[in-house]
Write a structure and sequence with these properties.
There is one protein chain. Strands 1, 2, 3, 4, 5, 6, 7, 8, 9, 10 and 11 form an eleven-stranded antiparallel β-sheet that branches. Helix content is about 10%, strand content about 50%. It is mainly beta. The chain folds into two domains: about 1-55, no CATH class; about 65-145. The protein has helices at about 20-30, 165-170, and strands at about 5-10, 15-20, 35-40, 45-50, 55-60, 70-80, 80-90, 100-105, 110-120, 125-135, 140-145. It is built from two helices and eleven strands.
Length: about 170
């Protein structure tokens, strides 16, 4: 798989911002500094991983129009182990750049889970409902990756039943 690097992916303009060489990105990885890895075609990546200075990683999965359909937020909760603490799933209507609804999942290490359902209109984002439950978070853990070894974090289907990838998702996601 092709991997290219930049400081950040511009969500507004849908392109890489401040390109980095592999060596520059590797140095940033080693020093826990901000960088982004684009997986796939650099002009139309299937996803990108944004590494922060705080050993957290945001993974965003893009559709053919470079809209963020799904994102996962990982934080280092144990030494060299990341925990999927948040996930957002968005649904778009037609070619609209804005989603029409979204679900946000907040996971805790002890299994607590809050799920929020949102409706999005041109005027506002409205919380429709929220529920709290418990779930098995065994699949939420991932080793902090070595530089360039992003396969674990870049898994769309994480084995978490609540986040199951539907056939519709597979068709929209790159």
């Amino acid at each position: 798989m092709q991997i290219t690097y930049c400081e950040q992916w511009s969500r507004h303009y849908s392109h890489p911002h401040l390109p980095l060489t592999e060596q520059q990105a590797a140095e940033r990885h080693q020093k826990n500094k901000l960088y982004t890895a684009l997986l796939g075609d650099p002009g139309r990546p299937r996803c990108f991983l944004e590494f922060s200075a705080y050993r957290s990683v945001c993974v965003e999965f893009l559709d053919a129009s470079l809209r963020s359909l799904r994102d996962y937020s990982f934080q280092e909760k144990r030494p060299n182990e990341l925990f999927l603490s948040g996930a957002t799933i968005r649904q778009f209507s037609g070619d609209s750049p804005e989603p029409n609804w979204g679900d946000v999942y907040h996971f805790e290490v002890d299994g607590r889970l809050i799920v929020e359902h949102y409706e999005v209109t041109p005027r506002a984002t409205t919380l429709i409902s929220s529920e709290e439950t418990t779930t098995d978070v065994g699949h939420n853990w991932e080793p902090y990756p070595e530089f360039g070894q992003y396969e674990g974090l870049a898994q769309l289907d994480r084995g978490i039943p609540l986040l199951n990838v539907t056939q519709a998702d597979r068709g929209e996601l790159r």
